[in-house]
Sequence to fold (450 residues):
Amino acid sequence: MEIEGIKANNAKQMLHPMTAPFMTKANKPMIIARGDGVYVFDIDGNKFLDSQGGLWCVNVGYNRPEMIKAVSEQVATLPYYQTFTEFSNPPAIELSAKIISMLEPENMRKLMFTSGGSDSVETALKMSRHYWKLKGQPEKTKFFSLKNAYHGVHMGGTSVTDTGVHKRAFEPVLPNCFQIDSPFPYRNPWTEDPEELGAICTGILAREIESQGPDMVAAFIAEPIQGAGGVIVPPTNFWPLVREVCDRYDVLLIADEVVTGFGRSGNMFGSRGWGVKADIMCFAKGLSSAYVPLGATVMNERVASAFDLESPEAMIMHGFTYSGHPVACAAGIASLGIVESEALPENAKIVGDYMMEQLKPFEERYKSVGEVRGKGLMLAVDLVVDKKTRESVDPFSGFSSRLSAVAQKEGVLVRAVGPKLIISPPLTFSRENVDELVAALTKAFDEVDV
Fold:
């Protein structure tokens, strides 16, 4: 289709995620035509610094020769074959071994490949219920998660997601899913002391498990750093205390590492950054750097061993047509190779710290900036109408969108999400890229925040 035809059909036939048709009809989506490094180009050839990393996911950057070679060679060799029952393929076997070796400190032993993050979460929830049935405790079916959580768009993930905007249209969701207060240092009703906050929130988790009955609770699921909920970095004691609570009540701990996995938080894995070993881990995004859709759900020795029974009850009646897709797995092998050889988790920490240093002064400089927070290369600028009360700007006011629109005019893409700006660039970002981003945001706030 020619360029003019593409433009004419923009938002005409295709429904876009997380928006309404009337919105895309009124404001046609930007058509991104190609990418190179940390930059993308629209269909008219205009260049933009991608501070979104696609959607938290293009970790190694665009147009990497290693990625292109791996994908193209695999397409030419074997573009697809299924992995159900009696079949497998070399890239799936190689990548599974690679992931398990990277997770040796967490004692991970088995995985199932998926097509993305929502699939990975759904798999984790189903496998945790199956696990308890195999252990002779079939009533352990309840799930706990955090307020401000986001765990994808399948029915299970939607049910353990907190925010109403993600679930209202689809209710009633699954029963027996409960949210406890999030350890949100900037917005909580109790304390300014992070350690005290971590203890308070894990105390709530313990009391709620006791109230529901430990013999009824299957798992607690959480993001090591809450992403879509606002880049909420928990106190350092929170995850270790959660692990203690889960051990005390014999509840599985699921780490949703879809965003944080493979380097974004400044550690190879978000939960590892808190010194905690989960029972089940969910991956996607950075696993293949989004060159081909790919995810994985990984189980530790404790969970995996339950499926060693020589019994029909241990049949894993779950999986996807594209589980272990050879092209996706080839992309995953190449992506993880780059992540390790270029020490991208370390770069995310170094460049992320520099970005925080450059953006933190915005809290004093601009009246609508309540807090700049983050860890590694996942940051948020929290927008408020009152710094003292920390009341958020009206998410429907369009304030954050006006800021991102100015940044876009300056050649920088920043994601506006309600009362926040979220920054999640490729992990190959440099200090010079940060300077470019900060210059665009300075222009945006100077123009809009008046």
Observations:
- The chain has a mean pLDDT of 97.
- The chain is about 40% helix and 15% strand.
- The CA atoms of residues 355 and 434 lie 6 Å apart.
